[in-house]
Amino acid sequence: MTTARPWPLGVEGIAYGGDYNPEQWPREVRREDVELMREAGVNLVSVAIFAWATLEPREGEYDFGWLDEVMDDLAEAGIKVALATATASPPPWLTSRHPEILPVTEDGTVLGQGGRQAYAVSSPLLREYALRMTRVMAERYGEHPALALWHVDNELGCHVPHDFSDHAALAFRGWLQRRYGSIEELNHAWGTAFWSQRYDSFEEILPPRAAPTYANPTQQLDFARFSSDELLTHYRALRDVLREITPQVPITTNLMLSSATKWMDYFSWADDLDLVANDHYLIAAEPRGQIELALAADLSRGVAGGDPWILMEHSTSAVNWQPRNRAKGRGEMLRNSLSHVARGADGIMFFQWRQSRAGAEKFHSAMVPHAGRDTDVWRGTLALGRALEALAPVRGSRVLSRVAIVMDYPSWWASELDSHPTQALRYSEELLRWYTAFWDLGIGVDMVPAGTDVTGYELVLAPTLYTVGEQDAERLAEAARAGSQVVITFFSGIVDENEHVYLGGYPGAFRDLLGVRTEEFHPLLEGEVHHLDDGTGADLWSEKTHLEGAEVVRSWADGPLHGWPAVTRHAVGEGAAWYVAARPSAEGLEALVGEIVAAAGVEPAVPGLHRDVEAVRRFAEDGTTYLFVLNHSDRDQVVQVNGRELLTGTEADGAFTVHAGAVAVIQES
Question: For residues 185-203, b (16+ Cβ closer than 10 Å) or e, as one string?
């Protein structure tokens, strides 16, 4: 199947490999690496991500001998390279000579050399050096037979999503001038009549640095928008150099799509990526981390617009940066990897190929561990390579869902600002809670940005869509009128794009759609739980809601709002709009989602599975379907399916057993 996005040149089947850092190893180890890669079935590695100081040990003096050798060895072995611009971490000679390129925190602390990403993304001098290095890399390796993909920088914004330096202040002013056109428009948008904040010129404006009390909320929101855009601008600048010199080579950068990465609006980055690449790591303390993993994979597919994408990094086992770094259990590496494939990834890669002997990430697992080949990790590396080779026919197929979840980064940023009804609200928690309810019912979802035409979905969820424009709100109303079950959760539709409250009662932009009017919020105190009339509990949130055409689905059974609506449903056109003005318990939420799913006529991919067994289908252009069944439970699962199981080559004829901890991929007949 052909897709709208290009693929790494010369990479057949599912891409498999990881970050390769040969500058850390002598020649004899690098020779062994190539042989081990061939044994494991590796066909794509990322090279030179953190190699700037090695490639340019002194300004203007380059040492490319080792990289030339590595590129040649990989090409001879038939292994393709995602070659980095080598700009992810400036060398010490640059930061010591030009400390003005270092980033600055909100309170004025300068972040120094010694880690990585020690640069202010708005610094013109940093940009000049990074562009020069990018050009040098492109001119030297642009025609190399190993080159399959350009990898720009690395995890942009990972450590410094917001820079408050003078460089950032100047760039922020320029961004604001382009956004508003005049200082009068900015004053209106920011509501500067409050607290005597009126500006007379753009030159008076600073980033929202540490202040005596709450900073202007629209200033904070705009700085978040600017910071995301500024990181994207840096990516574009480097990309444009690569495109000028090597227009035939696709270009990407590794995003960090998850429920934990807040500050980059990746939907706004999508059109600038030739293909979407993501990094994702499980949180060891989360007992059902596979659910958040699936959310991140669905989000990656959403940013890719449904096209196949690459998992650029994940871990073979433990990481090094969490408080307690748990090793993965038997089969977990394979399940994690194939869960991403099930949700549209056509490339599975790791950080990193060979585990480092020194440095901050030496205890981060790798495809080749410290203990070498006689290890479960290496055996897992080999097994995954064989599995991905068997799944080559899956490449290019797509996931088709009947449920959409609206994911909106500006609402994430704005809903968690200070001076709100509760400071306990966490957008990502609400997103994951609802996602988990769909997961437990076996219902797959698409993640889409606000403003998307969602009329093709039977069910659309907008959790905490706090800041929303009238046109984006109308998109959801259109879906309801066309027959969708549209679900809006509390603290949605409250403000417009400028953080101005919609007057006349909450939930503002969605009042007519939902057929309700809230006069006042009643957030719950820490530890406080009230009950709904279905017997389940609810915490965090309640509100005094009047019916204006809607019907009651759940009401409060106790507390100060006893008898008032907590969940409502409003018939709209061919569909309906549900308002959830409470935060039900997990049990209550799953029951509610079950009712909404039934009203939408949506069924799981495979009915009757254990809640810790996920089933996802990918659909090929020729009509072939691939059913992924991933058993995260400790018991065998029988699935009713007919076809050929690709990982083992066995036939599935009716009742097919997927063993505890195992994965099956059935090409259905």
Answer: ebbebbbbeeeeeeeeeee
